[in-house]
Write a structure and sequence with these properties.
Helix content: over 70%
Number of strands: 0
Number of helices: 9
Largest sheet: none
Distance between the termini: 27 Å
Structural class: mainly alpha
Order of helices and strands: HHHHHHHHH
Length: 245
């Protein structure tokens, strides 16, 4: 069973388990350790909880979420609709598009790292190394060479001879920098047609002597109409998905 199917099954069964067994309780206490192993276990739990708290940010920054959510935000700002669509819708769409784009990478991680680890065929360290390979491959396919060289120069590390010599501490910020650059480039292109509509409407209003009427009030319906006529959401989403190819 694939990882997505397992997660979906757990999400469906979790409410039924809560209703059947009642609400669970969690007790946290501090006591005296009688064995050094207990201290080690407590420290491991603390490290795991710390990693889990920053795991969502790490996953979002190493996927295509950054580019998608910035472009969608630019799209809303260029249209001038302010809070339509809302932030929840923009983030939700960005998340599901991220899952769609990253599905091949997640499937590869599931097949070569997660399932062998669950079957006790490989160790935890081996599973982590195998899981990082697809993520590194995705980031290398999207990172810009100039951005990568910039981070290498800033870190003052030796010039890498191949991809294996580049650490994650260098690759991840370089990847994020490349994503920000591409997102702003796409946002600039999105602003151009709507800017033209604003300029045309403002020129017509000035020619008619309506100086006190804000052009945004007149141009907004025309921008929405233009966006609907050209099937704007399909164009934006399609361009975003194809930009990761």
């Amino acid at each position: 069973m694939k990882l997505k199917s397992v997660l979906l099954l757990l999400l469906l069964l979790l409410p039924m388990g809560v209703y059947a067994a009642g609400l669970p309780t969690i007790t946290v206490g501090i006591g005296e350790a009688n064995d050094p192993g207990e201290v080690s276990t407590a420290l491991q739990i603390l490290v795991v909880l710390t990693i889990l708290s920053v795991a969502p940010a790490i996953l979002l920054m190493t996927t295509g979420f950054t580019r998608i959510v910035i472009v969608l935000s630019f799209m809303r700002q260029a249209m001038g609709t302010q809070s339509a669509p809302s932030n929840q819708i923009v983030i939700g769409l960005a998340l599901f598009l991220t899952f769609f784009i990253m599905a091949p990478v997640f499937d590869q991680i599931n097949e070569q790292a997660l399932q062998p680890y669950l079957d006790k065929e490989i160790s935890q360290e081996q599973a982590l190394e195998l899981a990082l390979e697809p993520m590194r491959g995705f980031m290398f396919s999207q990172v810009g060479e100039k951005d990568l060289q910039l981070l290498v120069d800033i870190s003052k590390s030796p010039q890498p001879e191949n991809r294996e010599d580049i650490s994650l501490m260098t690759l991840i910020p370089a990847f994020m920098l490349s994503e920000l650059k591409r997102a702003f480039q796409m946002g600039f292109l999105l602003f151009i047609p709507f800017l033209m509509v604003d300029m045309i409407v403002a020129s017509i209003l000035m020619a008619m002597g309506m100086m006190m009427l804000p052009p945004i009030i007149i141009s907004l319906p025309f921008k929405i109409l233009l966006f609907v006529l050209v099937d704007g959401w399909s164009l934006v989403v399609g361009s975003l998905v194809q930009s990761f190819g």
